[in-house]
Amino acid sequence: MSSKLGLGGGFKKFMARMKEDPFEHFLDALALGFNADYEEAIEKIDRAIYLTNEGYDKIEKATLLMLKGLAYYHIENYKESLSAFEQSIKLNPKNFSVWNAKGVTLIESEKYEEALSSFETALRYAEKEDLPLAWTNMGYVLNELDRFEEALEVCIKALESDPAIVDAWYDKSYALSELGNHDEALVACEEGLKLDKEDLNLLVQKGIVMLDLKRNDEALTYFEHATKLDPTDELAWYNKACTLSILNRGEDAVDALIVATSLEPENLLEMVEEEDFENIRKLDRFKKLASQIL
């Protein structure tokens, strides 16, 4: 999932809006740190937090803790990230950005129910300009929870407020696809790709929708495009393998499947049950690949 932390244009703009204070030099250093060195940024924030213990405003300290959480998020230390966000919330529980960031971090730990609760709380404190982001994040989580009708509803809200959110088009397409509305799902993909023709999630999603519509040759072009853009995307490789199998291109399908399983070993379990591989199950290379499960 792409990061949707949503601090109104990033850290520099966010900090530029803050009032000048005795610790402005710390925040300037933080802005530089967030461009390259998150660990250095954390050290700067910890120093600022230490100094805030003597008479500093709770809201300002909460902001520093939120920024610390964001820094930990970017180095994928989600435990420390959540700890910082929760400390920030205790000091300033009515901050949209920190509730939203907490929800995004919970997604990384696949704690979707908790993430949904965070986004619902974020909505209570959202300004009008925050609503599209909040609804988009909720749509993603609701899809992960298989609550597709609700996901579709909030994605529509997000896109009515801001039709330029690429992630919302993806989430809408995914929900529509899971609900069996493949033609509408395709339209949503195309709208999103108008905004970003190289969005990897949308390219793979469009390929999947093409498969659902039995437009297999077209599906293959999107998976091939996706694997060229990001050769490490296991989902694109796996779906490419499925499509090649459907098209009776057995050896090519196994080639793609070898890449998909090397990138994500759990695909070995998926391939055993995958109906799309019926055409290649008898191939020696497929059997050899499947034997790695044992």
From TrEMBL:
Q: Does the keyword Repeat apply?
A: yes
Going by the entry's taxonomy, the superkingdom of the source organism is recorded as Archaea
This one is known as Uncharacterized protein
| Pfam entry (one) | TPR_17
Keyword annotations for this protein? Repeat, TPR repeat
Question: Which residue ranges contain the repeat TPR?
Answer: 62-95, 96-129, 132-165, 200-233
Q: Which residues form the signal peptide?
A: none
